[in-house]
Design brief:
Elements lengths: L8 H6 L1 H14 L6 H14 L3 E5 L2 H11 L7 E5 L4 H9 L3 E5 L21 E4 L11 H11 L2 E2 L10 E2 L2 E2 L7 E4 L13 E5 L2 H10 L4 E3 L2 E2 L10 H32 L14 E2 L5 E4 L3 H10 L29 H9 E4 L7 H18 L1
Parallel strand pairs: 2-3, 2-4, 4-5
Antiparallel strand pairs: 1-9, 6-7, 6-12, 8-9, 10-11, 13-14
Helix pairs in contact: 2-8, 3-8, 4-5, 4-7, 8-11
The structure holds pyridoxal-5'-phosphate.
Pyridoxal-5'-phosphate binds next to helix 4 and helix 5.
């Protein structure tokens, strides 16, 4: 058997006609930037997220960056981020001129450990970025309490968790401004780069619309130094089609994850995803964890199964951030995670027999070890 890590083919062939029709409509419309399609998608995604506003932007990184600018993060400020996140979260803090302050995750959820946040708060701390990693919401009740107590803003990084909830509330609706990404491989993916910000604040929405469009509200009048970070009409049209399928696709992801969990439970030495009270998981990735990760990855490749590692090097050990002065051992939990996690294939159309095959290879591997 040959199983790719990610295959768009099954989901994309299901909606091919719908997508091509939407693209043709944009092609014929004579209007390609900030038009009806972006407006329609923004309305639909705001409704989906149960927020008052959605502002479409160029990508997920820009969504975080512009959110930080809009909430007023400035050079000299500190922003709390998890020590095990995708680099984009950290880059956005740097773009805003602020310093990322890393807080370790829980080993059981891979998400920021709220109990470790308060000791890292200083007079310079301006915001917290909870990252709902792999599709699992952070413990937002505890994080909201801390943010209220210390008067900090929250900007969620919801790039991996569209459709997830914590205590019944959608991720992407907790913070003052919340970022998401529609990179093709995300749960809701465009056919290229795209992102969005969700917010309940009219003030934030206005600021963000100006920031994404050269700092201009009225054409050729520039009130602030802005950016060119717009969602385009083609991607918005694609996203509007795909959004209608997202709930079904999420259910399919959950089903795949449940099957994996059922087949992989009770293997000594193998960690599988654990539930978190109040959180619904949308399984952007299905993560397992074990000591002999590299050996297991090789065994899977030999048997035709592609896997990935999210992420092999935590941000504090990236060369780009050497100036922060961290070294191996600075954030041991993030380092432990990066050296033990493995992402198994999960995508719309992954078949039961493929899941069973993958789990058989994994079980054989552990039987030969134990
Ligand atoms: C994908 C991702 C981003 C960045 O999104 P892009 O659209 O690729 O810029 C940010 N944060 C997390 C957690 C992501 O997974």
């Amino acid at each position: 058997m040959n199983i790719k890590f990610l295959d768009f083919h099954p989901s994309h062939s299901e909606i091919r006609a719908e997508i091509l029709e939407a693209l043709a409509k944009v092609y014929d419309s004579n209007w390609y930037i900030l038009g009806k399609e972006v407006q329609n998608f923004e309305n639909a995604y705001a409704q989906y997220s149960k927020t008052k506003h959605c502002i479409g932007v160029a990508n997920g990184l820009e969504a975080i960056h512009l959110s930080l600018k809009a909430i007023g993060v400035e050079p000299g400020d500190e922003v709390i981020v998890p020590s095990n996140t995708y680099i984009a979260t950290v880059l956005a803090v740097t773009y805003a001129g602020a310093t990322p302050v890393f807080v370790e995750p829980r080993l059981t959820s891979y998400n920021i450990n709220p109990e470790l946040i308060e000791p890292k708060i200083t007079s310079k701390t301006k915001a917290i970025i909870p990252v709902h990693l792999y599709g699992l919401p952070c413990e937002m009740d505890a994080i909201l309490n801390i943010s209220k107590k210390h008067n900090l803003s929250i900007v969620e990084d919801n790039a991996q968790s569209q459709g997830a909830t914590f205590n019944g509330k959608m991720t992407g609706s907790f913070g003052l401004a919340n970022a998401t990404s529609f990179y093709p491989g995300k749960n809701l993916g465009a056919l290229g780069d795209a992102g969005a910000i969700t917010t309940d604040s009219d003030e934030m929405a206005n600021k963000l619309k100006i920031l994404r469009n050269y700092g201009s509200e009225k054409k050729y009048f520039n009130s602030v130094i802005g950016y060119n970070s717009r969602l385009d009409e083609m991607q918005a049209a694609v996203l509007s089609v795909k959004l209608k399928h997202l709930n079904n696709w999420t259910s399919e992801r959950v089903k795949i994850a449940e099957k994996y969990k059922f087949l992989l439970k009770g293997i000594p030495g193998l960690e599988i995803p654990q539930p978190v009270e109040g959180a619904t998981h949308v399984y952007h990735q299905f993560i397992i964890r074990c000591k002999n990760r590299d050996e297991l990855k090789n065994r899977l490749i030999e048997n035709g199964v592609e896997t990935l590692i999210h992420y092999p090097i935590p941000p504090h050990l990236q060369e780009a951030y050497s100036s922060l002065g961290f070294k191996e051992g600075s954030f041991p939990i993030a380092e432990e995670i990066s050296s033990t996690v493995l992402s198994l294939p999960i995508y719309i159309g992954l078949k039961d027999e493929q899941i069973e095959y993958i789990c058989d290879v994994i079980k054989d591997f552990f039987q030969s070890k134990n």
